[in-house]
Each structure stands twice: as structure tokens, then as C-alpha cells.
Amino acid sequence: MSFNKSQEEAIHHKDGPCLTLAGPGSGKTLVITERTKYLITEYGIDPSHILVITFTKAAALEMKARFLKLMGTDSCQVTFGTFHAVYFSVLKHAYHYSASNIIREDQKYQFMREIIQRQYLEYEDETEFITSILGEISTVKNSGIDLAHYYAKNCAEEVFRKIYRLYEERLHQGRLIDFDDMLVYTYELFKERKDYLNAWQKKYQYILIDEFQDINKIQFDVIKMIAQPKNNLFIVGDDDQSIYRFRGAKPEIMLHFKDDFPDAKEILLDTNYRSQANVVKQSINLISYNKERYQKEIQAFQEPMDEVRYAVFKSQKEENSKIIWEIQEQIEKGASYSDFAILFRTNTQPRLLMEQLMEYNIPFRTKDNIPNLYEHWIAKDIFAYIRIAKGSRLRRDFLQIMNRPKRYISRDSLDEETVAFDVWEWFYEEQPWIRERIERLEYDIKMLSGMSPYAAINYIRRGIGYDDFCAEYADYRRINPDDLYEVLEELLAGAKEYKTYDDWFNHIEEYGKELERLSRIQNQNENSVSLATLHSSKGLEYPTVYIVDVNEGLMPYKKAVLDQDIEEERRMFYVGMTRAKKELNIFSVQNLNNKEMEISRFVKESKIANAKKVE
Question: What are 22's strand-pairing partners?
Fold first, then answer.
């Protein structure tokens, strides 16, 4: 096999630290496996002294399979694994842990459920709240932040600290550890027990790390310890593809690698073998706007093909229709559905697209868990109002909405399974201000009974005051109220074409059934269009890529305010662009969920607006 000059230099590197910058499609997996082979066959390194670290189990298995194929053998003394797998093997030896000591996801959620129920907190979606809290606990552990100095995002500081401590107590009581503890405990062990550290330093004398741009502080601190004193640390990654800061990744570790290892050799894998020249050129135009990066010239191996195509559509529906029409046209010419990927910024964006793909029987697969909008707690509140307007008098429907917005009505006032307004009003005979609110609710319900779904949602939001309830809840939970209004806007946009509640509810039921069916058969049909967020598209490649809704507020995302956040958003868009092998299509919309949208700055920065427009 022939290698280019920079690949060869990386493969032949033997001792000391080495930073290998690997742009998209530059053959980084090839370089890692070939260098591992070269260390063994040409330099005579004992394979059991070599450690290859990746970030996912799937990547470790793929890397190992490629290495075994290269060596022409079935047995492997080289260690291939994730940070967690490698560090857990350290703990197994030190503390005799086994797999039974690792807390399961369902256990973790159960512990947290019990803990937060005792704190009497108010939240609408328990799973979402627990997921957010666990994410914060993970951030604290991975970054080494002192708990006393951590500013909580989901609840008050003292509440978060209490939850954190109670969670840790539960783990200790059951002699359990979570994935973050694997890193923390290994770090603490090596700091305190030099004999253990020495043993692992002798075992792993050559360390290779893939996707180094995704490393976090504690992972790096431990690796630096193991690599000493020889520092045979060979790191491969692309600072331009660091997109996991929200998980604790620190791209600055790679950017400042030479501060930690001043004698590190630096190699640039500068040839993109994946994407045609126009895609490479315009993706480089974009990423060059980032200041915190290694400056690098990347060249395309492939000749220029079609120019990057750009278009603005009035709405998502028009945008989706264009994509569907083009896919169908290419299928008739012999293309496969698996040749196409549609990429977006958030996992809530593709709801309408999925509905339209279902309508045209186009098979698709999702790389992310796409939430069903109609199962969101806000949607359930709206449905409860509408069910009551349609005649429901079930206690559970009234309990759901009676204090949304706040009416100060007690649950005790509804002690029958069926609600009668006159009985309910009579209960508050001595509290006329609450009785008036029930009477007002009765009036609102009558108003809703004669409306279309679209008018009803608007009335619930502004006439009844549901938007005010959302603003209060957002303030309490320390979240942006716009996130909640967005759900309402999307419900509104989805309800627009339905004249009656029954029509709308029938559609929602059918959509839910189809989503369930798709999740059951998910990934069974290889020949399907891929739908993925920019995050989950990383590492993948397709002949034809569509990036949709390229608008301010989505790309870059509205929550990105600081310069470092904008740079991460730009890296994400760069990752999306470089998934395309032949055709790259960048689409924006003028209106999204009844809101006027601006074209993303990334369009201008990539200089795609000058490219050929879609007819």
C-alpha cells in the first residue's frame, strides 16, 4: 500500500510525543493501525506494551478488526479500548471491581428519582430533569471543579449540592461506580499509589489516541501519568472537528499540547481523500473564520465536481418537498437511498420532514433519538384542554391543567372521578376569588369547543395565559422560556392544516404509530436515507448531503453567545459539510414555526452564496 509523505512520516514515528493533525477524510485510522504494525514489525516493540485508545466501543472494535486484518492474524496482544474500558481495568486490579460494580442506567435513574422526590422539587418532565442533573454531575466529576464553586443550571445551588451528595452516598452504600468515577478513581489511585502507577507505566510504553480533540481534563491527566517518563504519546485528531464541549471535551488540550510536551513532533495529514475539491474549498473558507485553531492547508485528492448548491425556501415544507423530489429523481436514475443524508442542528427539527418522507414511502433511518413532539408535557397539557372542550369531564384531565396557569385550586376540590363545574364551584363558595377562576375556566372551555386546533392553541396560550405559565416555570427551572414557546410554535404550525380536533388527533395517532413502527425496524433496512444531527454525523460519509434550516438561531444555535460557543457551532457546521463526498446542498428557510428567519452567517463565511443556486 502506498502512503503520502505526511502519512509515511506519522507511521514511521517511533519515540517521544507526536501530534498528528488529521483533517476530514485524511486516513487517520489507516495511520494509527499502520503505525501500530510498524512499531511491532520494524521496531520490535512488544505488542503487549502498546495501548490504542478510542472514544467509543464501536470505534475500538473497528480499529482492532482493521489491525488484525493488517497483521493477518486472529490473536491480538495490543490493547484496543476506550478510556473507560482501560481505566476500569486499572480499578479491577486495584480494587477487585467487576462489571456488577458498574451502576446500570436504569439503577442510576431510579436512585435519582428517589432522591429528587424527597426534595419536593417541581418539574414537568421527570426524565428530562434527571437527565439534566446527571449531566451536571458528570461535568463536575470530569472537570475537577470544586462542588462548592459550581453554578448549577437546573436548580438552586444548595439543592444541586444536596442531590450530588445523596447520589454519591447511594453509590458508596452499594459499592457502585458510574462511568465518570472510573476516571476520577484511577486519577486518585495513581496520585496516591506510585507502585500501581509504575506497573501501568511499564505495561503501556507506547500510547496512541484517536480523536484526541474530544479528550477531557481528567482523561488527559491520567494519560500523562501513564505516559511518563518516556512520553511515547502519539495523538491523532482534528481541532476543527471538536464538537463535544457540552460533554466536557476540552479542545484547548489539543491546541496547547506542545505546552505540555514542548519537544512534540507535529505532522499534518493534509490530503482529504473523501470530498471533492469544491466541498473541501468551501469548508476551509468557513473554518478559517475560527481564531482558536491550528492554521492548516488542506488539499483535495479528488478533482472538482458539482459546485456546492445553495437555496432559500419559504418554509420547511417547501424545503423538504425539494429534497424528496430530488431523491426520487436520483433513485429513478439508479441511485440508492443510502447515498443520501439530511443533516440538521437539533433532534426536534425533522418532525415535518419525517411526516413528508412517510407520505412518499421513502425509507429513512435516524441516527438520533427523535422525540415525538406530541408526547412532550406541553403537548399533553394542550390535549387535556382540548379533551375537556370536546366534553371530557375526567378528573385526571382537570388535574393536569387546573393550575396551568396558576389558579390556586387545590387537588382536594376534585374528589370524584367525574367533574361537574357547578359542584366544583360550590366547593369554593367561601372563597369567591377561586370560584371566579373556575367560572372563567368554564367560559374558556366553552370558547374552545367551537374552535379549530390552530385557533385553540392560540387561545390557550394568550387568552387563557398558558404562555405566562411557561415563563414562570422557565424562571423556576433556570431554562430559557423560548425553548418552551418553541414547542408551542411547532404544535401551532403542525395544527394549521386541520379543521377539526378529530382530524388533528387522528393524524397525531397515526404519526405516533408510524414512529413506533420505525423504531422497531430501525436500522434493519440498510438502503434508507440517513437523518442525523450535525453531532451524530461525525465520522460518517455520503455521496450526497443536504444540510437543512441553515439559519441564525439554529446554525449557529441561539444558545451560542460567547466566542468559544460560536467557534464550536462553526466546527459543527464544518463537520456537516465534510460528510459530503460528491454533492453538498445547503438549504435555508425564510419562515420557521411562524417566525421570520435570517440566513446563517455560515453561508456567507463559506462563500456558498456565490455558488450555483438550485433551480
Answer: 269
Mean pLDDT in residue range 533-559: 93
Count the alpha carbons within 13 Å of 224 in the hemisphere toward its beta carbon. 15
Banded pLDDT at 615 (limits 50, 70, 90): very low
How far, in Å, CA of 99 to CA of 321, rounded?
Answer: 49
Using DSSP bridges, classify how beta strands 595-596 and 591-592 pair: parallel, antiparallel or unpaired: antiparallel
- Rounded to the nearest 5°, which phi and psi values hold at 365? -130, 145
Q: What is the DSSP letter of 256?
A: T
CB atoms within 10 A of CB 280: 25
Provide the total of helices (H) and of strands (E) in the chain, helices listed first: 25, 16
Report CA torsion sign: 593, 312, 304, 327.
positive
Question: Do 226 and 197 form a contact (C-beta atoms < 8 A)?
Answer: yes
Question: Which residue type, as a one-letter code, is found at position 197?
Answer: L
State the Cα–Cα distance between residues 548 and 343, nearest whole angstrom. Answer: 6
Question: Cβ distance 517 to 375 under 8 Å?
Answer: no
* Cα–Cα distance measured from residue 40 to residue 43, given in angstroms and rounded to the nearest whole number: 6
Label residues 341-350 b or e (16+ Cβ within 10 Å = b). bbbbbebbbb
pTM above 0.85, yes or no: yes
- The secondary structure element, H or E, covering residue 583 is strand 580-589
Block residue for cell numbers 424527597:
118
Q: Do 467 and 485 meet the contact criterion of CB atoms below 8 Å apart?
A: yes
Give CA–CA dist 257/220, Å, rounded. 10
Residue of 534, 543, 157, 526 lying closest to 346 (CA atoms): 534
